[in-house]
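Reminder to self: tokens first, then the designed residues, so the page reads top to bottom the way the pipeline ran.
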């Protein structure tokens, strides 16, 4: 009999939701190939964003997840820094510890962190050929100023916005598209090559956490 897995996630904002939904789905599906027996990953569920103290918010997410039958809960937070050290030390680790130490059976305690260095848009820059295809340009990475490692940019969102603006410069006014970065999150999330994402250490940590979540469910040795 096939096993089923219900995965949920809570992200920092609506654009993060649009990008991460498919990335999470496909990442879990890929990891499931290594499990003993077949594991079906049901469509991932998005938990509505809450405001407040981070640990309390994560606890609320975990309670919501349990009510919905979610078996693994992914928590997204941008590092907003050149490394993810502070995000883990001040947010992820303390919050996850609070949830796991509570003697409350009505919480999903199988937690997975998603912490892109700087911000989610750095992950969008991992597959530069896809980004250029979605923008609709044949310009080089250098011309678009996207030739550096994705997580080396202080503001990857601005980098993508600038690339779009550079593409538009050479177009006649009547042919310029009103493309905005907001339109890219969903298609890039659906199509980004996971092998390109795997070049980023932050994504590697996410993949490792997925495998740990499978082990807690005894789906993976």
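Designed residues (221 positions):
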């Amino acid at each position: 009999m096939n096993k089923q897995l219900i995965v949920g996630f809570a992200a920092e904002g609506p654009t993060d939701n649009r990008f991460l939904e498919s990335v999470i789905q496909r990442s879990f599906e890929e990891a499931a190939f290594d499990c003993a027996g077949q594991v079906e990953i049901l469509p991932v569920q998005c938990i509505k964003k809450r405001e407040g103290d981070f640990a309390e918010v994560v606890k609320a997410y975990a309670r919501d997840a349990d009510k919905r039958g979610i078996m693994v809960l992914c928590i997204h937070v941008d590092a907003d820094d050149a490394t993810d050290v502070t995000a883990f030390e001040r947010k992820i680790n303390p919050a996850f510890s609070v949830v796991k130490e509570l003697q409350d059976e009505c919480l999903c305690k199988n937690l997975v962190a998603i912490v892109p260095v700087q911000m989610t848009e750095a992950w969008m820059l991992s597959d530069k050929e896809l980004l250029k295809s979605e923008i609709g340009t044949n310009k080089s990475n250098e011309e678009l100023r996207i030739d550096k490692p994705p997580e080396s940019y202080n503001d990857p969102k601005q980098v993508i916005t600038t690339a779009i603006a550079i593409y538009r410069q050479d177009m006649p006014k009547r042919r310029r598209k009103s493309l905005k970065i907001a339109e890219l999150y969903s298609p890039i999330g659906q199509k980004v090559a996971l092998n390109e994402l795997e070049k980023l250490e932050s994504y590697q940590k996410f993949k490792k956490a997925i495998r740990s979540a499978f082990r807690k469910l005894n789906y993976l040795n």
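The chain has two domains: 3-117+200-216, 122-190.
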